[in-house]
Amino acid sequence: MNKNSLEWIKIRGNTGYWFSPSSMAFFGTRVNWNTLTEIPSGYLFVSSDQDYSGVAWNGERRYTVRLVNRDYGIQEIGEYNQFGSLKEAKKALADYVAEHNTKKEFKFYFLTGNRVFVTAANLEQAEQLLAEGKYEFQEAETRLEGVY
């Protein structure tokens, strides 16, 4: 998702000063807009901060996985500026989703072309259904659309 997606517009409108230009400039904050991931309790995303004075983290940019909680605003998942790279933070976000998300669904069509869905509860079950050769993915219906 990009910065101007409906989700981000709602989040920025409901979180007060956090996304204000002055707050982001003060902390040297950047948001990785495309990391927004919906989970049952809100949305996860990755941001980074940099102390331009060089006092904190020797001036290096550091990354944080954050939760936009519907009740409590923006919180850190793990420690503030815990990660030294965007790649590490994205992996932590994915690991968090995998560990805390038990409602993922994988949808399949019958090979006969009928518009009937078969749902798998997890990736292992989805792979088993594919291995049996009775089902196939259809791109428009199999994308994982966040968390259900």
Please state the CA-atom Rg, rounded to the nearest Å: 19 Å
How many domains?
Answer: 2
Average pLDDT over all residues: 76
As a percent range, the share of helical residues equals 25-40%
Describe the fold and architecture.
The protein is of the alpha+beta class. The chain has two domains: 6-100, no CATH class; 106-142, no CATH class. It has helices at residues 6-14, 21-27, 86-100, 123-131, 139-142, and strands at residues 30-39, 42-49, 62-69, 73-77, 106-110, 117-120, 135-136. A four-stranded antiparallel beta sheet has the order 1-2-3-4. Strands 6-5-7 form a three-stranded antiparallel beta sheet. β1 and β2 (42-49) form a beta hairpin. The longest helix has 15 residues, at 86-100. The two termini are 18 Å apart.
Concise synopsis of the structure shown:
This protein has 148 residues and is of the alpha+beta class.
Q: Tags for this entry?
A:
2 domains; disordered C terminus; 5 helices; three-stranded antiparallel sheet; alpha+beta; four-stranded antiparallel sheet; 148 residues
How is this fold's topology laid out?
Elements lengths: L5 H9 L6 H7 L2 E10 L2 E8 L12 E8 L3 E5 L8 H15 L5 E5 L6 E4 L2 H9 L3 E2 L2 H4 L6
Antiparallel strand pairs: 1-2, 2-3, 3-4, 5-6, 5-7
